[in-house]
Amino acid sequence: MLTTFIxxxxxxxxxxxxxxxxNKTKAAFAGRQGPPLFQLYFDLLKLLNKGAVYSxxxxxxxxxxxxxxxxxxxxxxxxxxxAGTASLSFSGDIIAFAYLLGLGRFFxxxxxxxxGSSFEGMGASREVTFAMFAEPTLFIIFVILARVTGSLSLxxxxxxxxxxxxxxxxxxxxxxxxxxxxxxxxxxxxxPVDDPATHLELTMIHEVMVLDHGGPDLAFILYGASIKLxxxxxxxxxxxxxxxxxxxxxxxxxxxxxxxxxxIVIGIVESAMARLRMVRxxxxxxAACMIACFGMIISLR
Amino acid sequence: MEHVTQLLLILVILANxxxxxxxxxxxxxxxxxxxxxxxxxxxxxxHPEERSIHLFVIALGMVGLKGFVIPGxxxxxxxxxxxxxxxxxxxxxxxxxxxxxxxxxxxFGIAGKLPLxxxxxxxMVVPVALSTVMMGLLVIVTRAKILSQALGYLILENGIYTFxxxxxxxxxxxxxxxxxxxxxAGIFIMGTVIEHIHREFGSISAHxxxxxxx
Amino acid sequence: MTILLLLLLIPVVLAxxxxxxxxxxxxxxxxxxxxxxxxxLVANLWVSDAWPSIGTWLSLDPAGKVVLSLxxxxxxxxxxxxxxxxxxxxxxxxxxxxxxxxxxxxATSVVAFSQHFGLLWVALEATTLxxxxxxxxxxxSRSLEATWKYLLICxxxxxxxxxxxxxxxxxxxxxxxxxxxxxxxxxxxxxGSLSVPWLHxxxxxxxxxxxxxMGLAPMHTWKPDAYGEAPGLVxxxxxxxxxxxxxxxxxRLTQVCQAAGQMDFARPLFILLGLLSMGVAxxxxxxxxxxxxxxxxxxxxxxxxxxxxxxxxxxxTYGAWLHMVNxxxxxxxxxLMAGNIHRHYRTKTASEVHGVLHRLPWSGALFMAGFIAxxxxxxxxxxxxxxxxxxGAIGNGHWGIVAGYLGCLAVIFIGxxxxxxxxxxxxxxxxxxxxxxxxxxLTTFTPLVLLAAVLVLGLYIPxxxxxxxxxxxQLVGGLR
Amino acid sequence: MxxxxxxxxxxxxxxxxxxxxxxxxxxxxxxxxxxVLAGCGVGLVPAWQALAGQTLSSVLVSWSVPGGxxxxxxxxxxxxxxxxxxxxxxxxxxxxSSYFEPYEEERSLKSVRFFLSGFIIAxxxxxxxxNAVLFLVAWEMMALAGFFLVAFEGHxxxxxxxxxxxxVATHLGxxxxxxxxxxxxxxxxxxxFAQMAGHPALLAASTPIFVxxxxxxxxxxxxxxxxxxxPEAHPAAPSPVSALMxxxxxxxxxxxxxxxxxxxxxxxxxxxxTLGAIGMCSGILGIxxxxxxxxxxxxxxxxxxxxVGIITLGIGIGYLGVxxxxxxxxxxxxxGTLWHVVNHxxxxxxxxxxxxxxxxxxxxxxxxxxxxxFTRMPLTGCCxxxxxxxxxxxxxxxxxxxxxxxxxxxxxxxxxxxxYLFVGAPxxxxxxxxxxxxxxxxxxxxxxxxxxxxxxxxAKESDWRMLLPMGALTGACLMxxxxxxxxxxxxxxxxxxxxxxxxxxxxxxxxxxxxxxSNIGLLSGAFLxxxxxxxxxxxxxxxxxxxxxxxxxxxxxxxxxxxxxxxASSFAQFPVSLFRSLVDRRVESDRPKGYFPTGARFRSSAPxxxxxxxxxxxxxxSLAWMSTFRRLQHGKVxxxxxxxxxxxxxxxxxxx
Lengths: 301, 214, 480, 656
Prior knowledge:
The complex is a heterotetramer. By secondary structure, chain B is mainly alpha-helical. Chain B has seven helices and no strands. Chain B is globular, with a radius of gyration of 18 Å. Chain C has a domain at 273-480. Helix content of chain C is 76%, strand content 1%. A two-stranded antiparallel sheet of chain C has the order 1-2. In chain C, β1 and β2 (58-59) form a beta hairpin. Helix content of chain D is 71%, strand content 3%. Chain D has helices at residues 2-16, 25-51, 76-99, 110-128, 132-150, 157-188, 193-196, 206-221, 230-236, 239-261, 269-291, 296-323, 327-362, 373-376, 378-391, 398-414, 424-447, 454-457, 464-482, 484-498, 503-544, 568-578, 609-629, 637-655, and strands at residues 59-61, 70-72, 547-550, 586-590, 601-605. In chain D, β1 and β2 (70-72) form a beta hairpin. The radius of gyration of chain D is 27 Å and the shape is globular. The termini of chain D are far apart. In chain D, 61% of the residues are buried. Chains in contact: A-D, B-C, B-D, C-D. Chains A and D meet through β1, α4, α5, α6 and α10 of A and α15, α16, α17, α21 and β3 of D. β1 (52-55) of chain A pairs parallel with β3 of chain D, so a sheet runs across the interface.
């Protein structure tokens, strides 16, 4: 029974590496040395050892926000395959995956509104608006994969996708990966949609919602964000190149290199582009949605 | 007796045209009275062979009622309303006459559609009756004074009565009397209402009676 | 035989007596006495299941029996209300009012019994003349104008009906003189030998003539003026009793057509008139501002429904008969309540009347319930009859008629709701009207009984009434 | 079935005994509440038995109305709806007993209590009537009782207008039903549903019946073009009544639709597609309009339209499954639909009762004037939070279960060849995301942050008679969310009764549907376990440390006033601006002028798009056109006679 949870264990352990690698690539592009790869681990340890400061205005919902968002992401990570196998998979778990992410987002927004500050309200409103485009795109991708692989469980969808084999699938693969990549950037508030490293409250989206969290709560939030990023990148990895079904060590190596490759691509995108204007972000997400629909039409032939 | 019936029927049509074309209200009432008398005598000429008392009584009643009692009522109403001068119809006289002619044609047209009942005195009765009915309606529609509208109603009744003559035998006396009684009561109530209107509105012109509308 | 004589003579005798009575306070009780006697005699007819007749002209048949009992019931309710009403209106002498009401009762009873077309015409003309003074009770210029228009239009209409009766007589005697012409029981067996063109002409004239009495469009123009200006009580009697008598005349006409096999000539005419009346009522109801005129158009609509039911035949005829009974009862509630509201608020424009529920709780509730009943909502009887007529229309596949029928019902519901709901609910205007006469037992008890009757008819049709309606419907080719 | 009779009798007594002269106000309220609660309790028994699969004998009483027959019977489908009905009615009446107390002084509540009982009885009759005429009578009596309840505060012009709109809309809908049942009755020869089911003669008239049934039941259920009365009637009605209307009365439309469409043995495929299309556009439009509202009850009314959209989408998927002979899709679609009907009944009535409790405490329905109520009304806050999470379909609650079923039906449908079938899942996802936006906004604006007005800050928690029903309803939501596996067979039976599925393949589909649902139950359990574990971990970590209190981070600006917070309108301004063409958003504001602005004012409202842009102009134009005809009644008696004369001559020439 224990072996089934290895993929979850790998995810939990390796998740903070991904933001580290992204910051490393951005530093390399900027010609500076940048923080060490394991910087996030050290931050998490530091935060866990701190006390906490809560605003007088807030209720227990503010304290429950980080806990629920982390728990929901961890349970969602159960379904995502790591190196070909997932901890838990049943037909229809894609819906559970999406709605668990929704649950995390719901409680983060409530925690933001609880503080009663206008910045957090602004961030919450933007977060919820962008989610309105990301979710349908995600579901169109799931429908495409369900049509192609004939199954409704996330792990079998991603692993058995005969994408590379047939020529027509190459076009479909490109469309699906591209739209999923944009959704990943939007969900994890990376550069084109939101700048994780900004300090100007008016421009933030995700960061401003967690302004008032400190100490262990902030640790939970950062850790949850990194797991979510790891999970999305893992999905992309499985789509880009199907895992060889040889020994676990071999598929593990392939999976690790793919993850690193995609993370570096994210880093490159972040260093090459600036953040889009707030009005343009819905257009980008709408473009992702149209691309997915186009992929859907192609998959029908 | 055929030509006597023709004569009386022509008299009825003439009375109609006279009312349509003439100004003074008094003259119109007299014309309608003559029409009533002519109609009263018509059954005698239509069915000469029947010498039954029943026919005489009805004829006498008709002549008395239509010739003298009802015109008397109308004259009394005029005297109270103190209007002697002629009535201004809504449409000019010649158009009135022209319409009258059209209606006579219409009456004959409709009568033509209906097969002639075998044992009527003459073929003229049905068309004359129908055109008198239509003329009566025309008088009501085109006159401004409500008294002349009552007059038009009277002409209408005369028209219907001429038609009733065809089946003089068929219709039992009691019903005949009932019809006469109802017509008389109708005119009587109309007369009283006209008096009230005169007292209430100060005139009996129909233009005053338009404030009940949507 | 004696019951029939009594039924006809009692009102006349009491009319004479009430002429003699000088005090305005005691005279209205004459009405109640006449109504109670009349009702007890009719009840006796039902209990002993007797079919009295005098000679061949006056005899009772199923159709006449239903109409007679409806007349008697409605007159009983009206008389009880009239006592309360006239005691409140002592400033108006009610001598002519009470006597003409009693003449009205006897005339309508004659209509119910008459089997002879001529006698039927005389009786209907008598009802017109008897009801003219009733309209003029308020003695102001508007009611005078309404009376004049009522008299003129109805007299012309009835005159055309007389012409139609003569046409019918000619149609009958076309082959040669026959004994007892125009007598229904004699005419029906030999209806085959009627001359068809004359019968058609007679049908058209009688339809237009009695249609005027019934208030079918386009001969309905007198109705809004007459009901708008008459007191609520008179409006109720005209819309409940007089229209039923005119409907009976049309039924007699249909009997003749049925026997002569000319129903496919008559059906389109009935349906045309029915739908035209409902359409006109719908159009005129929408922008209506005066709630009494609204009830007049509602009466035009329901007459349209009756004629439509008669025209559709089969199941719809039974529905039409049931609808006649329901309509009479429901109209009672609405007109009497409109009378109460009018006297309290002293205005007829609906927009100036608000909060009737607060000011006159009983009248407001009954007015609202009456509105719900008259627009054919289920718990009340009108839904059953309208649904039966609809089933009749669906049965013989007239989709156009179904659409027109339901379209008019919908528009009329919207029109009436826009008038009644703001009147019943809302804040009452707190001006001097607050001092108007309040609800009293006499002015609200009878409408309550009528409403209860409509409610019972909606939920449970007693078997004796069901048999009577079926017998009446079978006269004109109806079935359950 | 005697239980059903007994329960209806008790509810009826509850309504009538109120009129006893001797009764004091408190005694009247007590008798009414106790009797109706007991009636609902007793009514639950037959519903539960029918759902558990027992076939109950139907009551047959001869009724001397033409074509009518009093026939009451409960099959699995009626059992499900009855169960929901009695649960929500009990909660609403208990809530009402304390909600109506402030109205006690100024007016007598006899009529409201009578009509409330009448309303409950009529709905129960609608669900159990097996004869078309009885169904119609119960249907209209429900509409009537609803009208009088909506017009409870009839003295206000706005409430009167809403009641009138509601009454006209239901009546027009009923007219369509007249034709539907008229045609069914005439073709099948009898008005009993049993005889009508699968009758061969019905096929010929299936299209008109389908369209008219859509119009008739759709206007009651609230499909988008016919929904115009819903956002007006619910805010006007008192809260317990709007809970009952939104939770149960709307479902009578769905029940009727399922019952009538279930009569046809072979439903054509385009039925499913039309239902799906209507469902999708009702869902999206409903939730977009909800987002733009600032009045909480109007917001909940629009959210009901959205949920009805989801339900209809489920019916569409179910019927597509039936016409494609795929029992799995059919079962998922229909079971998901029926489950969402029950779920929506539970959490929507809880939300309305929550709104009622807030209205009771603060006296205002405008979300922009509330704020910070969670600290003052914690229990109401918890119930509304749980209900909001349930309505958004978030995992530990029951909303997720029913949406999961509809999703899997949509996905299975998406795997078929036809292009247009893939749209179901993404549209449902968009609706879900919008729902998260709406309800986080609504809950945040009302309960979180700082109180924006002194009335909000003076709010007090409601008494137990308001909290108990809310708590029970949200508890039921959580219960269903955690153990869905056990409820699924009952839902399967109800779905089988709703659609023409053969018994055999239904059991097969239930077989493999069951374990999937138990997985989800496990999932929710795992999530809750993990959340408590993390909570304990954090408690452990913070045990030693110091936990301080300070003010929220205001970027250094310390004098933050409560009005600086994001209100419901400002939160919704950005998402609503993306749907500009769909939302008729009216803003009245005078901006601060000059260098030292004295004051500024901003007021935004979102009246109903269809009502203001389509229906009102249409009604005005038709009224104007009709009034041109009214000039015909101009008062000149001569012309009246001319009409008669011309008509007669025309008849003579036409027919002679």
